[in-house]
Amino acid sequence: MIVDDHGLVRAGLEQLLGSAEDIDVVAAAGGGRQAIEMLDGAAPDVVLMDLSMPGLDGIAATREISRLAPAVNVVVLTSFSDRDRILDALGAGAIGYLLKDSEPDELLQGIRAAARGESPLAPKAASHLVRRHHQPAEAQLTEREQEILALIAEGASNKLIAHRLQIAEKTVKNHVSRIFQTLGVTDRTQAALWAARNGLDRSR
Predict the structure, then answer these.
(1) Residue 104 contacts by C-beta under 8 Å, 6 or more apart in sequence?
(2) SS3 88
(3) Which residues pair with 28 in a beta bridge?
(4) Residues in contact with 125: Cβ distance below 8 Å, sequence separation at least 6, in sequence order
(5) Which end of the chain is more exposed for a tag (fewer CB within 10 A), N or C?
(6) CA-to-CA distance for 48 and 77, rounded, in angstroms?
């Protein structure tokens, strides 16, 4: 099943995949919601999923398909290769992550691999994951996140941080969650200790 909100992309993919003797396109959906509605009738082995779509996006649709039909292997096909999107897609249940600038043969091989239960990953996407994995935690924090971490180390609450930086408290909460995830900590005390050990302060 092909899932993409652009008709020209769907048509191009149908033509490409239709040229392969061992691949059958059983359905083409213009969005995540339609893909889920067509799932039972089409019974695909592999779903080729775009990420950026109006309504139900590719991440949400992947999560729902994984819940409804665990045997279906979802492969993301997108233009985005940033680490967060890759992790979100794999976390939602996607088995692979391919890019729209891939060579046709690379895409076909990726679909065949997914049908075998393997995990095709575009080289560019894989290198982004590996490069980010080997960076020190501090290097993975944005300038804003380092600023917020320094304020956490000073004992500032989310409300005070929001006031100091003139941003919404909800935005602060989102930053704090990502800081915890990046540093591998679970609370503000551990984050403050990490900041102290690594010499993070407002002057950096």
Answers:
(1) 16
(2) helix
(3) 2
(4) 81, 86, 97, 98, 99
(5) C
(6) 6
C-beta neighbour count of 25 within 10 angstroms: 18
**pTM > 0.85:** no
Positions of the chain with pLDDT under 50: 132-135, 202-204
Give the chain's length.
Answer: 204
C-beta separation of 77 from 48 below 8 A: yes
Q: How many C-beta atoms lie closer than 10 Å to residue 113's C-beta?
A: 19
SS3 103: coil
| Of the candidates 49, 118, 55, 44, the residue with the CA atom closest to the CA atom of residue 77 | 49
Residue listed under structure tokens 């019974």: 43
| Dihedral sign for Cα atoms in the order 108, 113, 115, 116 | positive
Q: Which two tokens stand for residue 46?
A: 């592999």
CA distance 171 to 144: 11
Q: Which helix (H) or strand (E) holds 3?
A: strand 2-3
DSSP 144-181: HHHHHHHHHHTT--HHHHHHHHTS-HHHHHHHHHHHHH
Render pLDDT for 52-68 as a digit per residue (tens, 0 to 9): 999 999 999 999 999 99
Taking only the tens place, the pLDDT of each residue in 69-91 is: 999 999 999 998 877 788 888 88
Indicate the DSSP class of residue 56.
S
